[in-house]
UniProtKB/TrEMBL annotation:
Pfam families: DegV. It comes from the Bacteria. GO terms for molecular function: lipid binding. This is EDD domain protein, DegV family. It comes from Pseudoramibacter alactolyticus ATCC 23263. Keywords: Lipid-binding. May bind long-chain fatty acids, such as palmitate, and may play a role in lipid transport or fatty acid metabolism. NCBIfam families: DegV. InterPro entries: DegV, DegV_C, DegV_domain_contain.
Length: 298
């Protein structure tokens, strides 16, 4: 039975990967200076819209994010199921957002309307290209002929082993979103740069503090070097909030240190970016103890 992979726009995958693996993406929404914007970041690659949105953030334009729209969510899911396909949904970490809970509620209702269809849901325990990394590997496995249940089991077995490290340019965005804590307060007070990660439960936690931006980037490289598994078989992801020069520096250092098969660089979408701010940069990769299975890295 054929199946379709569905995710949300917080996965931050670039357009070429979304199209290559025929992934359905549910757009999230936010208000920018009291105007609603539907985020289809995977379609903004050539339009320079993401850069323009980050320019507005730097100017202090107000950004407010919204929960996943149930009607839009149901429309995408129903189209897949009505077409006769089974469905695999991979969503934004439930610890950081209500997106997964909303999608789960909608899919439970649709399961009764389409009892002949198989529906599987995976909380990615991830954000941005951490979520995107799982979607990407699901797409690779599907392309290689793996069935829905095999891909579903792989995701559940390996989602907690996705490593997600990042640093931010300005702590005020985390403070406004309610994701600050005492350790970040002291980093701001002392003029330090925080190193953060998303842990195995999908929660944002502070890890370290360093004295400079360059040092923060180098720590991201070091953390990757300490825990990445079989880098020559991996595509590692770098997500950035309109700081391409830093992303390119990070890519060079990663290639020198761990020699991955490929480094992919892409923007952080504005829904995630509204919480972490411009100049956020993160690295995402598969860590030690992960079960790679057959040749899924190319």
């Amino acid at each position: 039975m054929s199946y379709v992979i569905v995710t949300d726009s917080a996965c931050n995958l670039p357009r070429r990967l979304v199209e290559q693996y025929a992934i359905r993406v549910i757009p999230l929404t936010l208000n920018v200076d009291n105007c609603e914007l539907t985020v289809k970041s995977y379609r903004m690659d050539e339009l320079d819209q993401l850069k323009q949105l980050y320019t507005k953030m730097r100017r202090g334009v107000r950004f407010n994010t919204h929960p996943l729209n149930k009607e839009r969510c149901e429309t995408v899911f129903r189209e897949v199921l009505a077409h006769g396909d089974d469905l695999l949904y991979i969503g934004f970490s439930s610890t950081l957002s209500d997106t997964f809970a909303t999608a789960k509620f909608v899919l439970h209702a649709l399961a009764a309307a389409y009892p002949e269809r198989t529906i599987r849901m995976v909380d990615s325990l991830a954000a941005s290209l951490g979520e995107g990394l799982l979607v990407y590997h699901a797409g690779i496995l599907q392309e290689q002929g793996e069935d829905l249940e095999t891909v579903y089991r792989w995701l559940l077995a390996n989602r907690s082993l996705v490593r997600q490290w990042f640093t931010v340019g300005n702590l005020q965005f985390l403070q406004k979103s309610g994701r600050d804590n005492g350790r970040l307060f002291w980093a701001k007070l002392l003029g330090q740069k925080p190193i953060l990660r998303i842990n195995e439960r999908g929660a944002l936690v502070p890890a370290k503090r360093v004295r400079s931006r360059k040092r923060a980037l180098d720590v991201l490289v070091r953390e990757m070097g300490n825990s990445i598994v079989e880098p020559d078989r991996q595509t590692v992801f770098i997500a950035h909030g309109d700081c391409i020069e830093d992303a390119q520096y990070l890519s060079r250092r990663i290639r020198e240190r761990v020699h991955p098969d490929e480094c992919l660089i892409h923007f952080i979408d504005p829904v995630v970016g509204a919480h972490c701010g411009p100049d956020t940069i993160g690295v995402f990769f598969l860590g030690k103890d992960i079960h790679l299975g057959k040749d899924i890295h190319r």
